[in-house]
Structures are given as structure tokens and as C-alpha cells.
């Protein structure tokens, strides 16, 4: 705020000269002269009205100027509503908008006037300076621009994602390349970040990507299961940012920008042939970045600030690092005390039949939990439709919970018909353990509720003749109405009699 009121008081009430007034208010003589001249031009009386404020006085003495138009004065002023909408879009800048404005109106205002007009007319966006505690927050995000490597054998290009984290207090930065933004890659990148920092922060502030948040909500976001297990393992808290609120993570936004300029730009002319080569190069550039002096912090580097501000307050790393790559909760246990995970079936203790369990894929091991208690583990199998059964999980004498045994299923199938019962028995005989066939027989009994008894019997009979002892085979026969068609046997063609046919007597032993 200019010292307008004070200048006018010294000049018109006390009658001081321009020189003395300038000395009294510590302004130049030209400033005092300009203020008095603008006051006379404003038409305001002296003494001033008692209710006029300093802000009203300044607007009256120095009214806001409209940017001067060059050339044609009929050129319309820039549309501020349109400018606000466009600036909200990605990659749009004021410079681009001026260029478009200039192309539409060649005789428009100058670029400097355009910038000044927008600056004065746009509503200011308020921001708050944040003060961070050491070891408190780890920000994480992915860069929109990444790197790639070339497959030596095929020459195919493989794009990689650039993962970036920054500690709030020191801006100490970590970056690495990963194949994707999948659940396991995202969590393992955080594992590597904590190993890089040598400790754990009180909380993590990630962006709202699916690897971190499965359902975004301002008040109660749903955290991704794998990432939630990661946070539980390290004893930290996940606080996702709000949607479309980049200022919530300004620290990592700045770190991503710096990584793009000091890492991606530095490696732009290099050719890599594997992900490990890229990460080795990133580590070298990262070391240079973190040791580079920062002008805004008195020449201190990020690493110096990390050792001073963050390192002393980080929580220690757990003894064992996090290794879970996938989590699936509330998995139903079937009547055959097996669960299905990635199209393979794994046994659990028979007492858990018809209950719910949580499944963790930990490397090549499946860990199964019920009510937070560890139940069992299996080796992960990629054989679709196969069974992995631990004999210790079976009930005594293969008796099933609630008295259900193979005989019970066969008797239920026999209510439909003899062919259905024979198919149920054949399905269970094919399995290593009869209980593994319970699910398939259940499917068979369900088909009997959908299709008439006659068709069900015909379909099972046809499948038995073809030795197709699977639920899927019976279902396919019914869906394609093959049970209605008659099976035409292949004709037995007898060879013609001629001199070249030796007959069975030729091979008889004399």
C-alpha cells in the first residue's frame, strides 16, 4: 500500500515542501509529486471523507489501468473464463494461449500486456506454507515420462515406469525404473525406497493410482490390499492425496520434475538392454542429484539435509523385508476344503469348509490365513484346474464335514438317474482324492436342476461312452444339444480279398 494518506497530510495539512515531504515519508521527490498530481486529477476533496479506507483511496488516486491495445482498438480483450478452463488442462501454458490469441487477432495487445492482464484479472489461488517434521512423510509418485530398453534378441522396445519418492523435510530423492505400475511393483518399489533411506517414515502420501487406492474417497479411501499389507509390515500409515489436488504432494511433484530434468534428460541419448542397466544408470545420476548444492538452502545438498533433518527420526527397518506380491481376501472354502487361487485349487484344514480365508502370494509360496491366524502354506502352482492337496488337511477316513462323503454325492446323483450317478462316480475316481471331485459333482447336480432329467441322463451317457469324465464335458454336451443327436458309429470296413492279404494263418507258429 502506497503512503498516500501520509504524503497528502504532510503536503496539504502541514504545508511541507516536496523535498521535506519526501524526507518525512522516505520516498523520492518524484513519488511525492506524482502522488499529489494524481490526487488532484482524482477529484477527491481535502480533507478526505472520514469513511474512506486506504484501499479505496489508492484505487481513486491510482485507478487500475486496462492494458493498452496495439493497433486495432476494437480487438476484444482475452476471455478470462476460457483462459481459466484451458490452463486447467495438462501442458497448457499462458504462452500457448497468447500465441493462439495472436493468431486470431494479429493487432492484439503485446505479450507483456497479455501476461499482465491475466495476472491482475485472475482470482488468486491461495496456498499455505507447509512445515514438515523430520522422518514424518514419504511422498511417492510415478513420472509421466519414462525410459525404455531394447531386447537384445528381438529388438523390441520395452517401456519402463520411473518411480520417484521424496522425504518431506529434506527433499532427499529416490528413483528407480520398474516394468509396470502393478500392485507388486508399486509395493516393492517402496521396499527399495525404504532400504535406500535406511529407515521407515511415519506415513506415506501416494497419488490416487490403482496400485495404492482401489476406490478414491475424500474421507475414507479404500487402500489396495497389497499396499495395505506393506504398510502393516513396516508399521507406517498411508494417507492418499485428494483427487486432482497436486498441491497435496507438491514435494514429490517437484522431485518428479527434477528427476525428469536431471535423470531422464541426462540418459536420453543412452541405449539400454535391460531393466537392471537402466537402474544402474539411474543410481549414478541420483547420487549426483542428491549431492548437488541447492541455492535456496544456503548451498546445502539434499543428502546433507537428509542426514540432518530426516535420518535421525526414521524408524528402523523390520528384520525381514516385505515380499508379498498379491493379496486376495475373503476367499470362499469349498465343500471339498479347497480354495481357488489363480485357477488352481489348494487344500486347507477340513474344519474351514464353507468359511472364508485370506490368501497371500509370497514369492513362490501361497500363505493362507483365517481370522488373522496362519493356517497353512503351499507351493504356488501355475497348473490351471489342478489340485494341490495336503493329506493332513483331510478329515478322518475321508469323512466330510456334516457327514458328506463320496457315497452321499453318488446317492444324490442317483436320484437323477443311473447315468448321472455313474458320471459322478467316474469324476471322483479320476481324482487323487475323492474330495477333489466334490466341486465338479456339485456342478453336475446343479445342471440337473436346469435341464430335464431325460436330457441329463442322455448327456451323461454320451460323455461316459466318450470317456469324457468331466463336469465341463457334460455341460458342453447339454449347451450344444449333442445329447439329442444320435451317435452314429463308424462303419467297420472289411478289406477286399486278394493275393496280397496274407491272413491270420500266415502268422501262426508251426
Helix-strand layout with pairing:
Blueprint: H1 4-13, H2 18-25, H3 29-42, H4 54-61, H5 80-87, H6 94-104, H7 111-121, E1 137-142, E2 147-150, E3 157-167, E4 173-178, H8 183-197, E5 203-206, E6 213-215, E7 222-223, H9 225-234, E8 237-238, H10 250-264, H11 275-290, H12 302-310, E9 324-332, E10 338-341, E11 344-347, E12 356-362, E13 365-370, E14 373-379, E15 387-388, H13 406-414, H14 418-430, H15 438-450, H16 453-465, H17 471-479
Parallel strand pairs: 1-5, 5-8, 11-15
Antiparallel strand pairs: 1-3, 2-3, 3-4, 6-7, 9-12, 10-11, 12-13, 13-14
Features:
elongated; alpha+beta; 510 residues; six-stranded mixed sheet; Nucleotidyltransferase, domain 5; 15 strands; 5 domains; single chain; four-stranded antiparallel sheet; 15% strand
Amino acid at each position: 500500500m502506497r503512503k498516500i494518506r501520509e504524503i497528502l497530510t504532510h503536503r496539504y495539512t502541514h504545508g511541507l515542501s516536496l523535498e521535506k515531504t519526501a524526507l518525512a515519508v522516505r520516498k523520492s521527490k518524484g513519488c511525492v509529486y506524482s502522488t499529489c498530481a494524481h490526487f488532484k486529477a482524482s477529484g477527491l476533496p481535502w480533507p478526505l471523507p472520514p469513511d474512506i479506507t486506504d484501499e479505496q483511496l489508492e484505487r481513486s488516486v491510482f485507478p487500475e489501468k486496462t492494458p493498452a491495445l496495439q493497433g486495432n482498438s476494437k480487438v476484444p480483450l482475452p476471455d478470462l473464463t476460457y483462459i481459466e478452463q484451458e490452463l486447467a488442462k495438462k501442458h497448457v501454458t499462458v504462452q500457448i494461449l497468447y500465441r493462439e490469441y495472436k493468431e486470431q487477432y494479429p493487432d492484439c495487445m503485446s505479450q507483456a500486456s497479455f501476461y499482465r492482464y491475466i495476472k491482475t484479472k485472475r482470482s488468486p489461488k491461495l496456498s499455505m506454507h507447509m512445515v514438515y517434521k523430520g522422518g514424518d512423510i514419504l511422498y511417492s509418485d510415478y513420472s509421466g515420462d519414462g525410459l525404455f530398453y531394447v531386447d537384445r534378441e528381438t529388438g523390441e522396445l520395452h517401456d519402463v515406469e520411473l518411480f520417484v519418492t521424496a522425504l518431506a523435510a529434506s527433499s532427499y530423492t529416490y528413483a528407480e525404473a520398474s516394468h509396470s505400475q502393478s500392485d507388486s511393483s508399486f509395493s516393492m518399489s517402496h521396499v527399495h525406497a525404504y532400504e535406500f533411506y535406511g529407515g521407515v517414515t511415519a506415513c506415506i502420501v501416494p497419488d490416487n493410482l490403482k496400485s495404492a487406492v482401489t476406490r478414491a474417497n475424500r474421507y475414507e479411501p479404500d487402500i489396495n490390499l497389497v499396499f495395505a499389507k506393506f504398510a502393516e509390515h513396516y508399521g507406517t500409515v498411508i494417507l492418499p492425496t485428494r483427487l486432482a489436488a497436486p498441491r497435496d504432494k507438491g514435494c514429490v511433484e517437484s522431485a518428479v520434475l527434477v528427476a525428469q530434468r536431471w535423470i531422464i534428460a541426462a540418459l536420453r541419448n543412452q541405449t539400454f538392454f535391460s531393466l537392471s542397466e537402466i537402474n544402474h544408470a539411474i543410481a549414478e545420476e541420483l547420487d549426483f542429484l542428491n549431492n548437488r548444492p541447492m541455492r535456496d538452502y544456503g548451498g546445502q545438498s539434499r543428502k546433507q539435509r537428509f542426514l540432518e533433518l530426516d535420518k535421525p527420526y526414521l524408524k528402523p527397518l523390520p528384520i525381514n523385508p516385505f515380499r508379498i506380491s498379491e493379496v486376495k481376501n475373503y476367499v470362499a472354502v469349498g465343500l471339498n476344503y479347497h480354495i481357488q487361487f489363480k485357477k488352481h485349487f489348494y487344500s486347507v484344514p477340513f474344519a474351514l469348509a464353507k468359511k472364508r480365508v485370506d490368501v497371500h502370494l509370497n514369492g513362490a509360496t501361497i500363505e493362507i490365513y483365517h481370522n488373522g491366524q496362519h493356517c497353512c502354506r503351499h507351493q504356488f502352482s501355475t497348473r490351471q484346474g489342478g489340485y494341490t492337496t495336503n493329506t493332513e488337511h483331510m478329515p478322518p477316513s475321508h469323512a466330510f464335514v456334516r457327514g458328506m462323503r463320496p457315497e452321499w454325492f453318488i446317492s444324490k446323483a442317483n436320484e437323477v438317474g443311473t447315468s448321472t450317478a455313474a458320471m459322478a462316480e467316474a469324476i471322483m475316481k479320476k481324482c487323487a482324492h475323492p474330495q477333489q471331485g466334490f466341486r465338479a459333482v456339485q456342478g453336475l447336480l446343479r445342471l440337473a436342476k436346469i435341464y430335464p432329467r431325460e436330457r441329463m441322463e442322455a448327456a451323461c451317457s454320451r460323455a461316459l461312452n466318450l470317456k469324457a469324465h468331466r463336469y465341463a464335458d457334460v455341460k458342453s454336451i447339454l449347451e450344444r444339444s449333442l445329447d439329442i443327436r444320435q451317435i452314429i458309429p463308424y462303419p467297420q470296413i472289411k478289406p477286399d480279398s486278394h493275393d496280397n492279404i496274407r491272413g491270420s494263418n500266415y502268422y501262426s507258429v508251426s
